Structure of Signal recognition particle protein:
Amino acid sequence: MAFEGLTARLQNVFGKLRGRGKLTEEDVNEAMREVRLALLEADVNFKVVKDFIAKVKEKAVGQEVLKSFTPGMVVVDIVNKELTELMGGTQAKLAQAGKPPTVVLMAGLQGAGKTTLTGKLANLLQKQNHKPLLVAGDIYRPAAIKQLQVLGEQIGTPVFTLGNQVSPVEIAKQGVQHAKDNGNDYVLIDTAGRLQIDEALMEEIQNIHAAVKPDEVLLVVDAMTGQEAVNVAQSFHEKLALTGVVLTKLDGDTRGGAALSVKAVTGCPIKFASTGEKIDQLEPFHPDRMASRILGMGDMLSLIEKAQANIDADKAAEMERKMRTADFTLEDFLEQMEQVRKMGPLDQLLDMMPGMGKIKNMPNFKVDEKQIARTEAIVKSMTRNEKLKPDIINFSRRKRIAAGSGTTVADVNRLLRQFEDMKKMMKQFSSMMGPGGKGPKGG
Ligand code: GDP
């Protein structure tokens, strides 16, 4: 995941600050020198770093901060706020035209993730009850039209194409008309990318722009390219009046500098972040949540939203009841595991939990998706009776379950032990919470 290096370094700097009751101006200056290095190493544009440090220093060396009871915390808070500002302050939403359809034009270099993003955005819009139309405007890359059609089919979104013999300007125009005729309220136009910015590419997209007058021009940039992403954004912005940027491949091993520089350099807000190849791996970009994630303070809000989107509320309530009454079986255990997995790859979930990003980087902590798959296989190899009454699982049953799930008896033993521990913990917890789970006993 992006920002790992930066987060680790910043936590180190702030850990030192937090530990002290009093701070001098020199302590703050020293910390800011380290923050400066950390940002530069994360590939943040040097001018952006300079301004950022100046702003933080100006606020942090004030007498009130240094005299406060928890000066370290105050400094972290100032950095958090400035990071949020740097990335745009508040969330920049996708445009919505007064009169539908809203026309969204995609721009970007080849391989940035434009076509993928077009499909992801349609998927997101559909979840919000919109009726998008995809327009296949990339007639040069041989597989681009097909790729969009496959995506459209996967999510059930119509795709408008005139093949590759008609000009992209004409395709875009007719696509918008098609949306009007068919009641689509969003038109997402995929366009051709090139390996590098060239005149012909720019001219073509400018012509499309002039023909369909988009409400939103989204530049798709690959966060893995670091500073280059910022340069690309700047060149496009000069020619095309962008309204927003989408950062892709934030799941990769990027140092994160692009996310931190692009708004400051171009003035264009980041509207979405793409975090994987799968169709639902797209998130609205929230500067405040991203800042808190970078500082290792977690992003509980995004986590809760993910949970709400993916977990059935009735099921969650039922599960909660079972946990309280210790009525929890191995079947529930499995179901709960599946629910959590629906929320996304575990290591991405951990990144959103406060402090967890750090734990994840510890040498002996590994998010082992295989271990979860093994657990699932074991539980699934049990009979219903065994799942409800694990006490009956004797040695010969353990052997059978291990064989059925392709694991070992030791694996089965481990799982049963874990489950028992969990039940014990729940019992303790529910007796602590008192009847109904409303609060501590007698409290
Ligand atoms: P285009 O040329 O700009 O249309 O790029 P594509 O949409 O074809 O994407 C290029 C490659 O990047 C494909 O293999 C995508 O699956 C991959 N890709 C796109 N977005 C992401 C992302 O957020 N994370 C990762 N890991 N891969 C991505």
Q: What stands out?
A: Residues 102-297 form a domain with the Rossmann fold fold (CATH 3.40.50.300). The first strand starts at residue 102 and ends at 108.
